[in-house]
Amino acid sequence: xxxxxxxxxxxxxxxxxxxxxxxxxxxxxxxxxxxxxxxxxxxxxxxxxxxxxxxxxxxxxxxxxxxxxxxxxxxxxxxxxxxxxxxxxxxxxxxxxxxxxxxxxxxxxxxxxxxxxxxxxxxxxxxxxxxxxxxxxxxxxxxxxxxxxxxxxxxxxxxxxxxxxxxxxxxxxxxxxxxxxxxxxxxxxxxxxxxxxxxxxxxxxxxxxxxxxxxxxxxxxxxxxxxxxxx
Length: 231
Fold this sequence. Notes:
By secondary structure, the protein is mainly alpha-helical. The chain contains 8 helices and 2 strands, in the order ααααααααββ.
């Protein structure tokens, strides 16, 4: 039985327009949710703020943002895959894993943190051991690394506006720097908002490309199909 080469597989692969449309919308909605979540966030990040009435709504929005954005990253990657190279693949893998891991932080903030903060705040001293802290920090840093790599791939591929890639990378980098420096949660939120603007920009660019072309146009490059979604 004959086997298709990589180039032939690429030639025969047709990505439905709905994949790009869903991804573009997911990127936009997730970015808006991230901005709203950090804007609503209480003044402190310590879990003892779990009794604040804005704690659960803010972290619910952030949890949704980190969940809904996943199809967005996939669609954005596929749209620039032929030009993004190894950097694009690396960025996609790391940002998917990092975003997925980081989302568990927000899920715990929504579920058990408010209960513990209200009924047994002393338990936080037992829960937040070195293993818990390392897992949390590692998850966030993986998300940061993925965002930086993905943003760099956007800049390199030049399929989407490069400025959106810069916003994604730089904005995300501000988050751990602000935390490490002990700056206000508002500064952390500012960095996240810049990254979210880049994310929203990418989503709109993807949808605009589909609208201008009436679908996803595909040309050939070195025998394999190359997707182009921008005018």
